[in-house]
Amino acid sequence: MNELDFDIGGDKLREECGVFGIYDLDGGDVASTIYYGLFALQHRGQESCGIAVSDTEGPKGKVSAYKGMGLCNEVFETEHLEQMHGNIGVGHVRYSTAGSSTRENAQPLVLNYVKGTLGLAHNGNLVNAPQLRKELEYTGAIFQTTIDSEVIAYHIARARIGTPNVESAVAAAMKKLSGAYSLVIMSPRKLIGARDPYGFKPLCIGRRDNAYILASETCALETIGAEFVRDVEPGEIVAITREGIASNREMCLPDPAGEARCVFEYIYFSRPDSAFDGVGVYRARLQAGRFLAMDSPVEADLVVGVPESGNAAALGYAMESGIPYGTAFVKNSYVGRTFIKPKQSSRESAVRVKLNVLKEAVAGKRVIMIDDSIVRGTTSALIVNMLRDAGAREVHVKVSAPPFLHPCYFGTDIPDEDQLIAHGRSVEEIRQLIGADSLSYLRMERLKEMAGGKPICTACFSGIYPIEPPQEDIRGSYER
Ligand code: SF4
């Protein structure tokens, strides 16, 4: 959610996707609700988006779908939504980490097969998608995309032929999948939600009157005026029908201690007004700031956050330390994806287009600047420099995450190790590179506490992967 993630400084991570599904039992059209739901999830993916809807009372194979490259408000016109009739549907926003950024790879995927039509939207990356894809290709499957979501869709469609219902087919497919996936699936008469057994990515259930909703984040429920019902549990499959919500937990881990929620959802990806598995994202960020204040105190006059996701942690730091919280940056919210990125030499001016320092707030002060992460370090160095130019006497950088050291194979676009500033460097060396007076990171031991004590994935910081990582880098492997 950090507004600097337009990659001006090449220094922000991206989440892969957001998913949304709805089934209106009263038969109302759902396309425009999906559109607003996707709007609330736009921070999870800005490259492409799409909607597919169907009528549970209509012919089994009839689906209207529309997708394209760009933000929701760039892709959809009023007439697209008006022409999509149906009371069940799924939607998706995407940023590509596996499979290239093309319209063919946009989701939802719509698949016609012997039992009717499936619409599928997926958030996460599979670690065994290349093998599964190869196996399918050897048995004659022809793929239209290069995304692993199509591998999932194929497996569900195949399994459906030998299973009594679509949720059993999803369970059968899940036995073959390894990696991160939160799925919303529309079958002719059912809306299905599923989460991988580790629960890497969020997925929640909501309700508005007689309509049930599945969404990546709870903020999307509020946007459409729905009530939060509960989270889909790691490994759980839910089937929403006229009879209500049926749950299948056969794929849940026998011991929930092995679950591995992506801790970066709390630190950065999710919107602060969302809750992930019962833990408020805003509260988690406040807590991270408090921990920083406890573990690495420093004397200063002002605590500021790098907007947006650094702000809550900065407030937490201020509350714990008693040092006043303030605003040091004014951002320009109108720098969109199509911003013409300058060459390396003028990156500083590019950051200035996005972010300005409030001179009168920082001049002559010892400033603590809180950011959610340092990836390559380029943006951090520029912002520290901007604070000094504006007259800050000292700049102390605190990061509300541990140092990034390892790649993610579960759907987060962490660059190769040699591009990570923390790789092979001490904290002191990084401090020197970004030009700060002091630098400290959130301690590893604090992460689980920050996430409300839930079992989490910390692999990009610790190198301890909850699932055996692939031997080679699988990201983009189909293209290769
Ligand atoms: S490796 Fe990092 S970014 Fe990837 S799922 Fe684990 S915590 Fe999240």
Reconstruct the topology from this structure.
Blueprint: E1 17-24, H1 31-40, E2 48-54, E3 63-69, H2 72-75, H3 78-83, E4 88-94, E5 109-113, E6 116-123, H4 129-138, H5 148-161, H6 166-174, E7 182-186, E8 191-195, E9 204-208, E10 211-215, H7 218-223, E11 227-231, E12 237-241, E13 244-248, E14 261-262, H8 264-269, E15 275-276, E16 279-280, H9 281-295, E17 302-305, H10 309-321, E18 329-331, H11 347-354, E19 355-357, H12 359-362, E20 366-371, H13 378-389, E21 394-399, H14 427-434, E22 438-441, H15 446-450, E23 456-457, H16 459-462
Parallel strand pairs: 14-23, 17-20, 20-21, 21-22
Antiparallel strand pairs: 1-4, 1-10, 2-3, 2-4, 5-6, 6-7, 7-8, 8-12, 9-10, 9-11, 12-13, 15-16, 18-19
Helix pairs in contact: 5-6, 9-10
Bound molecules: iron/sulfur cluster (SF4).
Keywords:
disordered N terminus, 480 residues, Glutamine Phosphoribosylpyrophosphate, subunit 1, domain 1, globular, Rossmann fold
